[in-house]
Amino acid sequence: MVAQPSLAEMLRSRGLRLTAQRQLILEAVHDLGHATPEQVHHAVREVAAGVNITTIYRTLELLEELGLVTHTHLSHGSPTYHSVTDEQHVHLVCRSCKSVSEMDPVLAEPLIDALAKERGFQVDIGHMALFGTCQKCGAQS
Questions:
Q1: Which of 130, 22, 129, 35 is nearest to 82 (CA)?
Q2: Closest alpha carbon to 33 in 104, 98, 99, 81
Q3: CA 46 – CA 71 distance, rounded (Å)
Q4: Which tens digits make up the pLDDT trace of 16-58?
Q5: How confident is the model at residue 16, as a pLDDT?
Q6: Domains 7-83 and 90-140 share a fold
Q7: What topology is assigned to 90-140 in CATH?
Q8: CATH 1.20.120.530, applies to 7-83
Q9: In whole angstroms, what is the distance from residue 102 CA to residue 75 CA?
Q10: Looking at the predicted structure, is the pLDDT value of residue 69 above 90?
Q11: Structural domain boundaries in the chain
């Protein structure tokens, strides 16, 4: 098994350096699980008050280019980022209570396979989000 390069090595290979801010932002994404840039900003500011939201956005873009985080759109607002070290999953978003849960992509395989076979379309599981009503909200209506 080949060891993954560290964040510092990845940045150095691009002529960039590892800063405390970049490290804090990556750690916040890992710790929060699914987080918008605003949520990452809030978490990072608890440790380093001087980090501004522009730095958060730029760093998240860089981390995504490096293949360390990915994003999906779970609402009409900001994208939600999560670590690529997380297992692949489909996001389930409740339109009523706004909760986000995860589903094993195996459950979506019939749809994914049909799209590949019938349309030649390759689904990016990391960006897949299904919107509907969660069990709790469905029971209340």
A1: 35
A2: 81
A3: 23
A4: 888 899 999 999 999 998 889 999 999 999 999 899 999 999 9
A5: 84
A6: no
A7: Dna Ligase; domain 1 (3.30.1490)
A8: no
A9: 15
A10: no
A11: 7-83, 90-140
